[in-house]
Design a protein that fits this description.
Layout: H1 2-24, E1 40-45, E2 49-51, E3 56-61, E4 71-81, E5 93-106, E6 133-136, E7 151-153, E8 168-172, E9 182-194, H2 201-205, H3 209-212, E10 251-263, E11 269-270, E12 272-277, E13 302-304, H4 309-313, E14 318-326, E15 331-339, E16 344-350, E17 356-360, E18 362-364, E19 377-380, E20 382-384, E21 391-392, E22 397-405, E23 411-414, E24 417-423, H5 427-434, H6 437-444
Parallel strand pairs: 8-11
Antiparallel strand pairs: 1-10, 2-10, 3-9, 4-8, 4-10, 5-6, 5-7, 5-9, 12-24, 13-23, 14-22, 15-20, 15-21, 15-24, 16-17, 16-22, 18-19
Length: 447
Amino acid sequence: MSTIKMWFATKDMVISLAILLLVSVTPCSSAFWKTQNKVKTAVLLSPKFELRPGSVSNKYYYDIEFPRGHVALKGFTAEVVDEVGNPVPLHETYLHHWALFRYYESKSKLATHTNYDPHRVLHVSDSIQNSSLVLVRNSGICQGNSLGQYYGIGSETRGTNTDIPDPFGLEIGNPAEVPEGYEEKWLLNIHAIDTRGVEDKLGCTECRCDLYNVTVNEYGIPLSPSYEGGLNCCYDQTQCRLKKGFQGPKRTLYLRYTAKWIDWDEYVVPVKIYILDVTDTLKISDTSSSIDSSNHDCRVEYKVDPCNSESKKDNECVDVKRTRLPMQKGGYVVYGVAHQHSGGIGATLYGQDGRVICTSMPNYGSGDEAGNEAGYVVGMTTCYSKPGSVKIFDGETLTLESNYSSTTRSRTGVMGIFYLLVAEQLPHEHYLTHSSPFFRNINNVFN
């Protein structure tokens, strides 16, 4: 028994000495918890988009300005501004959402499209042989192109922290990952609704079909009579109903976005993006119960029914929506945040044993100025977990819960989306596996 105890003591002591030696010969004495690189920042403008009172712009801009090379993203934020750079408040232009996508484009077909072209198609496929444009999805579990973005947020964009703490980073631009003959590029989707002079601001932002006088979607397919509102009714160039006689000028607007990054090196611990959706109706194959055969169906948005009289009397006008989602691959949670619309009162992600992984709550504005607009969600609280303190296990089934206040009328087009950054290794584990062969061999001696 004493020999066994001595063996473990020796192992721990040798590894500890190796780590101390590793730190002492490393240029950065805090290499486990900080990167050696300084954060670089770029403030950029999207292509312009124009809006008249009540109008909608929902465009996709390809090959936007973005950090190039093998780097680690550390944050990305955005806001709508006018021609002179003034922030535009949500009660004038409602930012329904913006989303940032990564894609590969064939070098041989770079000149075949303009930057904004609604007919371009991003393909999701393991084989890129026949595709000129290929979406590089996040690690999330939704199907196809659904919720495949790297970043995405809505009205809460000004008040939500997206910074990734050291020593973690989101790896992009790795030349080893880009297929031969392709280039890595970035796509920006901006969905904005001008609510100046409209009859019903909330109804316009909830994309209620009657206010847009829409009965078919953007592809001309008739909508179900039960579909009261959502993305299918406020697509590009639709018009929300104005107050009688209202007139206002056309405005030229931009999305001003800020990217933060550092050069990639061995000190950066990579994170993966998982985007979960409370509308995901998971279907398991009849022939197998394995996670690989799961068929996810993320609908992105849903409707909150009006509060019934009995619930209203008991002050229980809260709509609770839940879904259970198996995670094939887990890891350590670094960051978490939810996305909800007006009426949202918070979302929580639970582990299989009921523990809280992250709760994210909306902050509502109380004024008129940009960033504090009364009645709008102007921020979401975030979860920054101490490294190693919150873990999702491989194969664990999570529960996502999204809560909305229920009113006397239905809420349409609401969302309950959860964004997670997950690291597969803790900083010291990552550094041991990416350090010199000498230190890796010391660790391997005892494994």
